[in-house]
């Protein structure tokens, strides 16, 4: 018991320090761990919710496919930036999109599964009871389902009520018993939730209310995977070469300008003139860009791994060179995240530690880690409030914003050049 406690502490410490995912941090601390399972379901882990959900279902069917290739089939990386301001609690949060079509769950699922040649059914049942019965029927028939519940209502990520209805990410519902549904959310242990809670979480967000994807048996031949990789590459280049400053690479250039602009109403010097909720915004950047966050980070390393696989699959060695460039870009995103929430600041270091503790509890222990995650979350939201108050007295945000802007500009140029070379 003591050894396990010490291992968990070391993994959490590494996650907080480096921003790494649970899987990567644990690998460095303890080496490869044996595959965990729950009955007939094998936990395969994963780095990004959408791609991990598809990959875990396919692997449990017996298919030989990797998460990087699923990610590439879906179009690979994307770009997007939104600064949300909420009047009900006077909070501000940064949302970053790093996956192709990150804002459209259904569209991305459809094209990814179609390119891979995976048959699927998509269900949208408006009524809560009908949706619950449909999910139960699929699970009773032995068909795992990809669902999209609201994080606040599932509860295990321990987000506060002010985030009720802010959405969530795809997870796999793989079995049920009389009272509960069992979820796989990239971890190594089951997340067991009451059926009523799952029903409420699936019904909460209107734009994807009760959406369910049921994957059929796939025949993933090498030729099929090669074609999917080729189509995904074309999609990625076309998508990131677009002129949109909301959902393509120019989003980074726009954000860089807004960090130092003094006239635009959405410019950071104007929005944060009162410096209210600045710590929340900076934490959003760190959580969004680093794998320690809930959504899996900037995904440039996942894309690089996909390019390495595609280089062999398509007999195109130049793709391996592109993979190297995107690993360098991943490092640029890491440096940006470190600049936004540096561990040298004691308040920020504590926030990082508590954020890592929550994710480690969920990934390592599932439902059993709930009490530890809840305790860390209680401390986290107190620490965040204190950090917001502390930054409200910051004399000058100019150097901070200018530094972030400079790093973002470098990222934009690096990604623009890398995509042009990939084309």
UniProtKB/TrEMBL annotation:
Domain Butirosin biosynthesis protein H N-terminal, residue spans: 48-185
InterPro entries xrefs: BtrH_N, DUF4872
Span of domain DUF4872: 200-346
One of the Pfam families matching this protein, by short name: DUF4872
Name of the molecule in the record: DUF4872 domain-containing protein
Organism: Nonomuraea rosea
């Amino acid at each position: 018991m003591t050894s396990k406690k010490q291992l968990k502490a070391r993994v959490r410490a590494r996650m907080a320090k480096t921003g790494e995912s649970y899987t990567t941090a644990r690998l460095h601390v303890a080496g490869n761990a044996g595959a965990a399972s729950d009955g007939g379901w094998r936990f395969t882990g994963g780095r990004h919710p959408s791609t991990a959900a598809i990959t875990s279902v396919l692997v449990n069917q017996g298919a030989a496919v990797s998460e990087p290739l699923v990610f590439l089939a879906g179009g690979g990386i994307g770009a997007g930036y939104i600064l949300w301001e909420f009047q009900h609690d006077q909070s501000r949060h940064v949302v970053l999109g790093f996956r192709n079509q990150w804002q459209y769950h259904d569209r991305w699922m459809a094209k990814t599964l179609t390119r891979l040649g995976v048959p699927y059914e998509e269900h949208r049942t408006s009524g809560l009871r009908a949706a619950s019965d449909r999910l139960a029927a699929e699970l009773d028939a032995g068909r795992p389902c990809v669902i999209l519940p609201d994080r606040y209502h599932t509860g295990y990520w321990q987000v506060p009520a002010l985030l009720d209805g802010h959405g969530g990410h795809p997870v796999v519902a793989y079995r049920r018993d009389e009272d509960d549904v069992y979820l796989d959310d990239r971890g190594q242990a089951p997340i067991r939730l009451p059926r009523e809670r799952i029903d409420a979480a699936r019904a909460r967000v209107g734009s994807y209310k009760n959406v369910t994807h049921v994957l059929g048996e796939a025949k993933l031949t090498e030729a099929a995977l090669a074609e999917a990789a080729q189509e995904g590459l074309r999609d990625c280049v076309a998508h990131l070469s677009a002129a949109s400053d909301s959902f393509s690479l120019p989003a980074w250039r726009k954000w860089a300008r807004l960090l130092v602009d003094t006239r635009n109403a959405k410019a950071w010097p104007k929005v944060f003139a009162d410096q209210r909720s600045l710590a929340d915004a900076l934490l959003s950047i760190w959580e969004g860009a680093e794998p320690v966050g809930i959504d899996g980070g900037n995904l440039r390393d996942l894309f690089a791994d996909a390019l390495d696989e595609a280089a062999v699959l398509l007999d195109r060695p130049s793709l391996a060179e592109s993979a190297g460039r995107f690993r360098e870009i991943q490092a640029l995103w890491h440096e940006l995240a470190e600049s936004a929430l540096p561990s040298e600041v004691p308040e920020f270091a504590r926030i990082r530690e508590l954020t890592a503790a929550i994710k480690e509890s969920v990934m390592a222990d599932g439902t059993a880690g709930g009490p530890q995650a809840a305790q860390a979350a209680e401390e986290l939201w107190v620490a965040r409030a204190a950090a917001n108050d502390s930054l409200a007295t910051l004399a000058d945000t100019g150097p901070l914003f200018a530094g972030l802007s400079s790093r973002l500009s470098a990222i934009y140029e690096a990604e623009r050049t890398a995509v042009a070379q990939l084309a």
